[in-house]
Specification:
With 160 residues, the chain is an alpha+beta fold. The protein has one domain. It is built from three helices and twelve strands. β5 and β6 form a beta hairpin. α1 packs parallel to α2 and α2 packs antiparallel against α3.
Length: 160
């Protein structure tokens, strides 16, 4: 049996897609609220609430590379309320679930370029994506902010 590499299924949103995503936030004609994001250790977090989200599936084991968390080949922007637990070396989801490095996570979201991350969230988060991105590939896998993630804390083995 051949072990398969984990995959990240994502929708690449261009400038028009990012604009449409932001426009959902203030679609009632009122002033659009500021979209917040923050960094907690290696965890990049969307502290936003969207009326709509992206429709791709993000799935794979969590990897810690330097100071960055990855799923597949892209840094990850986690849902609202996610934090980092230094003692456990684990991601803590907003429902209290610990996600160990090596655990498989899946949930709805998509992929945004660093430029789109700056437009949808903020420049600080975009800079973090750029710093984490390998070989100048500056895109992030982005879980929808209010997404409830599925977690398997089993670390993958070499046998598949």
């Amino acid at each position: 049996m051949v072990a398969r590499a984990p995959t990240v299924v994502a929708v690449i949103l261009g400038a028009v897609g990012a604009w449409a995503l932001v426009s959902f936030v203030g679609s009632d004609g009122a002033a659009e609220p500021e979209v917040h994001a923050r960094i907690d250790g290696p965890v990049l977090v969307s502290d936003a609430h969207w009326e709509a989200g992206m429709a791709a599936l993000i799935r794979g084991p969590v990897r810690l590379v330097g100071d960055c968390l990855f799923i597949g080949s892209a840094p990850v922007i986690w849902p609202t309320g996610t934090t980092w637990d230094d003692e456990a070396d684990a991601v803590v989801l907003n429902d209290g679930t610990l996600v160990a490095v090596g655990a498989t996570v899946s949930g709805g979201g998509g992929s945004l370029s660093a430029a789109d991350v700056a437009g949808v969230f903020n420049e600080e988060l975009a800079d973090a994506v750029r710093a984490c991105a390998p070989n100048g590939r500056s895109a992030a896998s982005v879980f929808n902010p209010d997404q409830r993630l599925q977690v398997s804390n089993r670390k993958p083995t070499n046998g598949g």
